[in-house]
Amino acid sequence: MSGFDDRERAFEAEFARDQEVQFRITARRNRLVGEWAAERMGLTPEETDAYAKAVVQADFEEAGDEDVIRKLAGDLTAAHVEISDAEIRAALNEKAVEARRQFMDKQG
């Protein structure tokens, strides 16, 4: 029975590592897309840093990306930046690739 227990623990540990990696990549993606939006809104470097952190925090409101998309869309619209949800989703996808690349570069 010990063999099964060891395998189960190994799978659980691998799952936990995978979840942590995905969390870090998503948080990095959100920071990058926050910086992208801040640039579009013309924020200062200090405001950009604070805004990027706020975007990362917004992702904790609900599962999935809708909370981040709502925040970005609302803030960009309030700043008189014309943008569609499709453009925001495209930026999220682009920044997800960049975040994964940065994470892998950091690991290797």
Count of distinct strands: 0
The value of Rg in angstroms is 17 Å
What's the average pLDDT? 93
CATH topology: Major Prion Protein
Q: Report, as a whole number of angstroms, the end-to-end distance.
A: 37 Å
Largest beta-sheet details: none
Mind telling me the CATH superfamily name?
A: Domain of unknown function DUF1476
Helicity level? over 70%
Mass-distribution shape: elongated
The CATH class: Mainly Alpha
Q: What is the percentage of strand-forming residues?
A: under 5%
- Give helix and strand order, one letter per element, not per position: HHHH
Number of domains: 1
Low-confidence stretches: none
CATH arch. level architecture = Orthogonal Bundle
Which structural category do the helix and sheet elements fall into?
Answer: mainly alpha
Number of helices: 4
